[in-house]
Amino acid sequence: MIAFFQQPWPWYVAGPLIGLLVPALLLTSNKTFGISSNFRHICAACAPGNIPFFKYNWKQESWNLIFALGILAGGWIAVSLLGNGQPASIHPNLAADLAVYGIHPETAMVPSSLFGIDQLFTLRGLILMVGGGLLVGFGTRYAGGCTSGHSIMGLSSLQWPSLVATMAFMAGGFLMANFILPHLLAL
Amino acid sequence: MKYLKYLLFGILFGIILVKAEMISWFRIQEMFRLESFHMYGIIGSAVFTGILSVWLIRRFNIKTIHGETVVIPEKKFNKGQIYGGLLFGLGWAMTGACPGPLFAQAGTGAAAVIVTILSAIAGTWLYGRFREKLPH
Fold first, then answer.
1. Any idea which of A107-121, A141-155, B93-107 has the lowest mean pLDDT?
2. 20 to 30 A from B80, CA-CA: which of A2, A21, A117, A121?
């Protein structure tokens, strides 16, 4: 039984389950699915400065922080109790391209050759972690949501601005993965 | 105790994110290089399920368990969805994670991801600081 859950879950199991989080949050709590607002709440709680954007009652949104804490705990449970210790099988073209830069599939889903603590002291690691993080935080707030708030929740409620945002997310990702990232990995 | 359900929903989401390998940096690269259907299948079927759920809720005026009418705030269009969306997309492919997966990645023990999360908080702060000067 446990072995069944330890295998990687196929898309047709994971997708509908995530989709069901939308009505689950709506019907139990009248809350809309979303994650990136948490970064704003943390700013509002810890360093609001004198910035109007961070002056609101963030405590009213603390459910969202608890939700994020749950995700963190879920990540730990999935690895420690439901992990199978197998390296991810990846597309041979990707494997070949990455091998050039000394990056290989690992059991960890976050490759330590790029995102290990020691990599923080390399230019490449610093750009990917700090630069990438800044872009994620700045971009999601500028866009008013992330893959959860726009691509799942916004599209589920047929809101066209979320479709625009989702297309922009994908365009940025395509540009980075295919044209910019190879140069960063070569650093 | 009213927060317990959010914790449980979060745990469920975190487990799905890891077990479906959605937090894998490699899977995100495959998605953007069009080398795998996996992520498209997940997002597509999640949106399909969500659309169906919201449609059912509206069609039959289904109330919350507390008897309230379900409210979904309207998203208003502004240019931030394009500019910010593009910037987030760049960061998504670099880190291999959007905000939800960042928390799940940290939970799997990838300690350095904490730096990425702190950077995302800093990025959000910078947006708040310079919001008035940005085109919207």
1. A107-121
2. A21
Amino acid in the structure at residue A184: L
The predicted structure's pLDDT at residue A93? 94
Looking at residue A8, the DSSP 8-state letter turns out to be: P
Q: Which of B31, B52, B70 sits opposite A26 (nearest CB)?
A: B70
Residues in B touching A141 (Cβ below 8 Å):
84, 123-124, 127-128
Write phi, then psi, for A169 (nearest 5 degrees): -55, -50
pLDDT beyond 80 at A4: no
Note the ipTM here: 0.96
pLDDT for A6 = 83
DSSP secondary structure letters along B30-79 = HHHTT--SHHHHHHHHHHHHHHHHHHHHHHTTPBPTTSPBP--PPPPP-T
